[in-house]
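Progress report, Aim 2. The chain analyzed during this reporting quarter is listed below.
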Amino acid sequence: MTWLSPILAGAAAAIAIPALLILYFLKLRRRDIEVSTTLLWQKSIQDLQANAPFQKLRRNILLLLQLLVLAAAILALAQPEIDMGVGDGQRFVLLIDRSASMSARDETDSRGNPVTRLEKAKQEAIRFVDTMREPGLFARDRRDEAMIIAFDTGAEVVQTFTGDKRRLRTVIESIEPTDAPARFEEAARLAGAHAVTVFMEAVGLVTEAGDPMYIWSDGGFPDADRVSVDPSTPVHYRSVGAADSVNFGVTAFHAERAFDAPERVSVFVGVQRVGAAGGGGEVDVEFAVDGLVSAVRTVRFPETGSDAPASEIEAPRPSGVVFRLDRLEAATLRVRLLGQDALASDDTAWLLLPPARRLSALYVAERESMLLEAVEAQELSRLVSASPQQFQRMADDGRLAEFDVIILDDWAPQTALPRGRYLIFGAEAQGLRGLEGMGERVEDPRIVIDWRRDHPALRGVSFDNLYIASSSTLQLGESAVTLAESDRGPAIVEVGDSGARAIVTNFAVLDTNWIWDHNLVIFLGTAIRHLAGDGAAFAHERLTPGAVLSTRLPPGASDVELTLPGAERISLTPSADGLVNYGPIRRIGLHRLRWTGVPGEADQVVDGRPQRTMAANLLDPYESDIRPVERLELATRDIESAPGEAGPALAARSLWPWLILAALGVILLEWFVYNRKVHV
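Predicted structure tokens for the chain:
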């Protein structure tokens, strides 16, 4: 047994018990009676002797009962706890999901008030901390300790191991929700990083079982199948969230200008519904241009006629709507789902539309190929064909800036690419961030097995019939984005930064049958539009909460200030080459960078200062799918959700409530005895 506050109880006992005894010492019960003779004086003397201090306390049942009440109250102040079969103090790792879906308001607290999933998770985590064992008066080393990890896309140790319950409660209460998607791999890695490695004779290095992990989340991690947890590590999962919640979310938002009429803009909005099985519904989608509402359309989800119980929640059902507008100038587009649902983070999205323009391209090759004919079919405003020597002269004269996109056909310069947007076929380019190298081209037939159909550069493109006779192996860095994957590795990637950016293939067009496929013409059109629209100020406009905002400002930029969606302003210092970084991004919305200096090609000038606007959107079907997961299916094992009060956290049980109850019972008994004595 341990005592949480023995000193307080001792002080209370030192005051209360003597005070009660003193009250009984001073309490006299003499009555004034007239007598007619002094023969009774001897009786009075005996009465005085009976009032001596210790004589007065003999056989006093009321005093005994009141002392029992005081003893119970004082013991309750000492907060005794009894160990529930656990030996030395334990260490726990508490993992709390703070991702976007944890802001769904479909839980209730102990009073029945509606709360978010994160608030519910924090309440349960605090109750867990309250049950942790405190240090005993004579066993200070037997207390429990906990470490707290908050995670969304990334993970953060918000509190290292400590047994200070007040500190743990404060840290848990301070965890704020974010709009970032949930990923569990990094959180599991941080939790497992504290496992102890010991050396055993004849065995070698052995990793002991990690500290028990307790996870509060609604599950649904897209990377769960990549998460490995040591089988000897105890893992406890507590699922939060109501299974019957209905949610509508924006999962896609992009705009395209007509190639032959750039002023015509088509805006595509993808909407997803998650709700009770078989149920239908509808949601109004509001479309605004530069803050002014332009149109409202209704997206309907018909009933599926499912025979499943209404309490079961069905798989997400996608739908969408298209808005059209005529706009030559740049604009800030916004869509918003009207009405109430469980999650608000996925109800709004923003998109920065660049100004319309007819595109120009520079085609560079050692010798012209049939690829040039496919480029000519794009109806560009200007198309120039150049040799490598001419390309170098243009670069030296600064004339490459005249072209929106530069197409390098089976050739690339040996030096770093100048600033610009490039579409590179089968050549190793230098100076592109994320492209670390390209191996020798070998004759090794390949096919494309998967590609990102939702990427703007591949929209409407099919690789089903593409046959690659010879190709190279791409060596990629972390920032590279794989657009198409062959059966031997990445085949098409997007690399670079705001200075030089490129889409690179590991094959030359003439080494494939693509030249005879209409999908090549489609790919050229979508890739050129994507690269041209991905200009200086728009290179990083499509931010995702949880990612890092990174952009390069014009040379000489100073006094850089970032305004967050909540109007908070943060000062940033650019590097020598103008690169600024901030993150990870926590909230959806518009992020505005302002600085002193010259604006970039597509930057705005507001109140005399250049401004670059970037939009952060959730647009994540996994996160909008708010169905709580009752079982985590990790790479190494499955973990079932346990009730909120279950688990070895109940290592010590508090006895003070029972002592208070006992004190109340003794008070009732004392009142009964008092009344009997008065009436007798």
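The chain has twelve helices and 40 strands. The mean pLDDT is 84. These observations will guide the mutagenesis work planned for the next reporting period.
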